[in-house]
Design goal:
Blueprint lengths: L9 H22 L19 E2 L11 E2 H17 L4 H12 L12 E2 L5 E3 L2 E2 H14 L7 H17 L9 E2 L6 E2 L1 H17 L6 H14 E2 L4 E2 L2 E2 L13 E2 L1 H18 L4 H14 L11 E3 L4 E3 L4 H14 L2 H19 L23 E2 L2 H18 L9
Antiparallel strand pairs: 1-14, 2-3, 3-4, 5-6, 7-10, 8-9, 11-12, 12-13
InterPro entries: 6-hairpin_glycosidase_sf, 6hp_glycosidase-like_sf, AGE/CE
Keywords: Isomerase
Organism: Gluconacetobacter tumulisoli
Length: 397
């Protein structure tokens, strides 16, 4: 007997429509105007703003981090590829502004002044990961080849200047000490996959293969099904409390990355993805609210029960990656409803409550632009699923 083709529950389609309406009708118009630094003729001449004030007005902290510029380049690139009319102009402006951060040796600085002057010339792996990621995506909008060449040049520089003999890369150059971090390596894998998908060139997949090998051999703990955050120089978990901490949002992010790696390369790691996903569901999700918690220990104990916005969008991507649409639909809808009702409400239109406390009260004095990358990426995964799976038939058909 031939199994029936999967169909998508109506609730998922409604959630997709509501999420898309908020993104295109409210968020992008705000972040494409107040959230950009320019004028009517060149709306992102000085790039994207670092954050906005809680009342939705523009803020100027006196600096612009490269990671935020890169994340906003990605967000407006995807908006343009979806057909949002202002996306291309914003992406092009941010791309031009970002180039102020390109160093003479081929690396990138960490922080610029609001006018593009260099404030911090440090090469930071986290920033570099997002620069490669954003350039790879922008190469699908600007098809001149220049963004992709720049992404490849950055990868080559990274391998020359920051690779370490026992795998992975330095977190900063010059190095400032402290534990080695998995987080920038995770984002570098996302960047490598974006570059490979953009070019289709197997040579661009090499970095992704190397980073997945690092994950399998160093970052992942098979005994607990967890992903470490902080490591010694030889990739052993840091001693003490810091070495026992895990972030469910990162567990979910790796679930999506491993599935994406399998989709693009044909090399699957289902056991690793299932272990990460299972731990996240057992310990990382509040059973009453469905919110993804911020920080746990490897034994599942809650360290910080607050729920950052970004972790919810990574939970969404993981749910979509791991479940057949008809079986995961209820959880997908719950995550989107939480985003719309708990994070996008009770704040200026098109903005968000980035970091609520345990009682879901806003913490902090700003609306960070950096969260937009997570929001757009979460929507994009939901949109891809909706486009790929037909609607459920009407009753009586």
């Amino acid at each position: 007997m031939i199994a029936p083709a999967p169909t998508l529950p109506d609730g998922v389609r409604r959630a997709h429509a509501a999420f898309g309406s908020w993104l295109f009708d409210r968020a992008l118009p705000v972040w494409g105007t107040t959230g950009c630094d320019g004028d009517a003729h060149d709306p992102a001449r000085l790039g994207a703003r670092e954050h906005l004030n809680p009342d939705g007005t523009a803020a100027d902290p006196g600096f612009k981090r490269m990671r935020v510029q890169a994340r906003q380049l990605y967000a407006f690139t995807r908006a343009a590829l979806y057909g949002w009319p202002g996306g291309a102009a914003r992406a092009e402006g941010i791309y031009r502004f970002m180039r102020h951060g390109l160093r003479d040796d081929g690396g990138w600085v960490r922080r610029l002044a609001t006018d593009g002057a260099v404030l911090d010339p440090t090469a930071d792996l986290y920033d570099l990961a997002f620069i490669i990621f954003a350039l790879s995506w922008y190469g699908r909008l600007d098809t001149s080849g220049a963004p992709v060449r720049l992404a490849r040049q950055t990868v080559a520089w990274l391998r020359r200047a920051m690779a370490t003999p026992n795998g992975g890369f330095l977190d900063t150059l010059p190095r400032t000490g402290g534990p080695r971090q998995q987080n920038p390596h995770m984002h570098l894998l996302e960047a490598a996959l974006a570059l490979f998908e953009t070019t289709g060139d197997e040579s661009d997949a090499t970095l992704a293969h190397d980073l997945v090998a690092l994950f399998r051999t160093r970052l992942f703990d098979a005994r607990t099904g967890t992903l470490g955050e902080a490591f010694t120089d030889d990739w052993q978990p840091m001693p003490g409390e810091v070495g026992r901490l895990v972030e469910p949002g990162h567990q979910y992010e790796w679930v999506w990355l491993l599935r994406e790696y399998g989709r693009l390369t044909g090399r699957t790691l289902p056991d690793h993805a299932c272990s990460l996903f299972g731990f996240g569901h057992r310990h990382g999700v509040d059973p009453h609210t469905g919110l993804v918690r911020d920080v746990l220990r490897r034994d599942g104990a809650i360290v910080r029960g607050s729920a950052r916005l970004w972790a919810q969008t990574e939970g969404l991507r993981a749910e979509i990656a791991m479940h057949r649409p008809e079986s995961g639909g209820e959880r997908i809808v719950r995550i989107v409803d939480n985003l719309l009702d708990r994070y996008f409400a009770d704040c200026p239109p098109g903005m968000w409550n980035d970091h609520p406390d345990d009682m879901l009260r806003p913490m902090g004095d700003r609306i960070p632009a950096s969260s937009f990358y997570h929001i757009v990426a979460g929507y994009a995964e939901l949109d891809r699923m909706v486009r790929d799976v037909p609607a459920a038939p009407l009753r009586g058909d």
